[in-house]
Specification:
alpha+beta; Tetrahydropterin Synthase, Chain A; 4-stranded antiparallel beta sheet
Length: about 150
Amino acid sequence: MKISFYVYRALIICIILLGLLIVCGTLYGVFFSSRPQTNKQIDVLQSEAQIFSGIGRLRVPTADPEPGVVIIFVSFVFDPNDRIFSEELALRVRDFRDITADYIGSFSIAELHMLDEEKIKTELISRFNAILRLGRIDTLFFSDFLIL
């Protein structure tokens, strides 16, 4: 009988301590933690420019007799408030992917190693802007550019 009485008492103490911990944690969270941002605050904090990464990661075979692979992830800056241009970008994703694959795939591995990354970016910007009617791309970024 004595063992069950002590177990019962220990369980009651644990439940009381757990309840106190929950109450104290809740009070701390309410009074001392930072408030989550509202949608209005988030809208104010967003910058005017946004990154378009819809092209995604491409795996492009090179022009070698035994082709290597180039892994490339292309993104660029655009204004999300320009809805018409944003829609054109969304409609041109397949074209951007094809242009990138055709251009990068026209080089051998040795030629790609010799090319300057800025020259590749400039040429891709030129080709992208040639198909765009409602806006322009000014800056291009490669978050991945691996030659395998």
